[in-house]
């Protein structure tokens, strides 16, 4: 059984382990920056604090019909926020798919099936990144 903490001498596996820990912290800071920016620089299109709590902690299906949430197109048409969104998604995708790779390695023991599963995870990762880039850069122009 594999140790929870990889050896320092294991090369890429150790760096991916470190990346997973650091990327979790990085995603928290990136999300906090987005929230702070939305509150400080959003101007009249801000959500009030009650609406932010409602959307963040009580996501029910009728909020879409009964809310006056401003449109995201003006903010995401800015190239800084497009790159920021794709960068945040890239960090989250690498973080998540690396975790999925570790789970696959823990539970799949046949060599050819493990190779197939790792390639499948990699192809899903590339497809997810491509879909995110298309959504951010093509839909929000």
Molecular structure report:
With 141 residues, the chain is mostly helical. Helices cover 71% and strands 0% of the residues. The protein is built from 5 helices and no strands. α4 runs antiparallel to α5. The relative contact order is 0.10. The mean pLDDT is 78.
Q: Rough shape? A: elongated
Helix content range: over 70%
Count of DSSP H/I helices: 5
Terminal residue distance: 50 Å
Order of helical and strand elements: HHHHH
Radius of gyration: 19 Å
If you average the pLDDT, what whole number results? 78
Poorly predicted ranges (pLDDT <50, ≥5 residues)?
Answer: none
Major beta sheet summary: none
Number of strands: 0
Structural class: mainly alpha
**Percent strand:** under 5%
Short description:
This protein has 141 residues and is mainly α. Helix content is 71%, strand content 0%. Helix 1 packs antiparallel against helix 4 and helix 4 packs antiparallel against helix 5.
Walk me through the topology.
Layout: H1 12-40, H2 49-57, H3 73-76, H4 79-107, H5 111-139
Provide tags for this entry.
141 residues; mainly alpha
């Amino acid at each position: 059984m594999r140790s929870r903490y990889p050896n320092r001498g294991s090369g890429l596996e150790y760096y991916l382990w470190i990346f997973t820990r650091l990327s979790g912290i990085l995603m928290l800071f990136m999300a906090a920056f987005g929230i702070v920016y939305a509150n400080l620089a959003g101007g009249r299109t801000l959500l009030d604090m009650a609406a932010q709590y409602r959307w963040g902690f009580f996501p029910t299906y009728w909020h879409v019909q009964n809310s006056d949430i401003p449109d995201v197109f003006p903010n995401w048409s800015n190239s800084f926020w497009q790159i920021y969104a794709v960068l945040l998604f890239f960090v989250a995708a690498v973080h998540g798919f690396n975790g999925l790779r570790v789970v696959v390695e823990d539970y799949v023991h046949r060599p050819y099936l493990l190779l197939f599963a790792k390639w499948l995870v990699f192809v899903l990762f590339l497809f997810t990144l491509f879909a995110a880039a298309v959504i951010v850069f093509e839909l929000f122009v």
